[in-house]
């Protein structure tokens, strides 16, 4: 009798995590403008056990965002340039507003709304937090001020509210956050609650209490230090865990 043919062990399914690509006018390695996502971000999702998938920003009228998202297990809204101020009702634009792209704005806002509607696990980072806030009717402070107020290129402590999904993920009531932003939440969107603040009162985290899907948003960039700081990697772990258990 022929011995049974050895079988390869099954590889556990990695939850698919959709990450809207960011438009870049130039890159150092490509001949043309590109759609990109930060390598540190992708690697953090991969370390967590997820399969990071960049999705192309397209006009929602031409492509049903809900249908596109339905095949994914979770969504990550990454950092990027500023939202156009008119998206949150501002009449003027501050000189510091940068890298505004109308298509990126329209797509990201629709992704935020549809992801929440579908109950897909969602982690929103920096611009992503601001997108969710604006999608739910909130507004932004267009510029936080001079070097003593802005949060660019700084690592600072953030106080986290107990009992939140953010606190459950990180496992602490304080963390060191790597920040790169010159804007912050002004009016908080409908239903959103702050979950973390910097010493100057800047909202550093938002959640939707009572929302059926796993969702948390942070104003900082956990991917910057996730490779060395388990507390920051834990945010990506929590996203992928929630995505896995939703399958």
Automatic annotation (TrEMBL):
Listed InterPro entries: Class_I_gatase-like, Peptidase_C26, PuuD-like
Q: Which GO terms describe its molecular function?
A: hydrolase activity
Tell me, what's a Pfam family for it? Answer: Peptidase_C26
Per UniProt, the keywords (alphabetical) are: Hydrolase
For this protein, the record's PROSITE patterns field holds: GATASE_TYPE_1
Task: From the Swiss-Prot or TrEMBL record, give the protein name.
Answer: Gamma-glutamyl-gamma-aminobutyrate hydrolase family protein
Q: Which organism is it from?
A: Streptomyces ossamyceticus
Phylogenetic lineage: Bacteria, Bacillati, Actinomycetota, Actinomycetes, Kitasatosporales
């Amino acid at each position: 009798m022929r011995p049974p043919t050895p079988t390869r062990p099954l590889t556990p399914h990695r939850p698919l995590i959709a990450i809207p690509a960011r438009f870049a006018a130039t890159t150092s390695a490509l001949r043309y403008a590109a759609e990109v996502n930060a390598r540190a971000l992708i690697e953090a999702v991969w370390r967590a056990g997820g399969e990071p998938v960049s999705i192309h920003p397209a006009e929602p009228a031409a492509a049903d965002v809900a249908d596109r998202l339905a095949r994914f297990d979770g969504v990550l809204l990454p950092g990027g340039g500023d939202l156009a101020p008119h998206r949150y009702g501002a009449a003027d634009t501050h000189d510091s507003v940068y890298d505004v792209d109308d298509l990126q704005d329209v797509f990201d806002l629709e992704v935020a709304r549809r992801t929440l509607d579908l109950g897909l696990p969602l982690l929103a980072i920096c611009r992503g937090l601001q997108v969710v806030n604006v999608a739910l009717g909130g507004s932004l402070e267009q510029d936080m001020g001079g070097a003593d107020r802005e949060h660019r290129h700084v690592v600072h402590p953030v106080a986290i509210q107990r009992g939140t999904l953010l606190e459950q993920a990180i496992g602490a009531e304080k963390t060191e956050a790597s920040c790169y932003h010159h804007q912050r939440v002004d009016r908080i969107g409908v239903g959103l609650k702050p979950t973390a603040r910097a010493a100057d009162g800047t909202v550093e985290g938002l959640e939707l209490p009572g929302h059926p899907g796993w969702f948390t948003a942070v104003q900082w960039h956990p991917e910057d230090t996730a490779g060395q700081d388990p507390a920051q990697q834990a945010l990506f772990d929590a996203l992928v865990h929630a995505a896995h258990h939703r399958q």
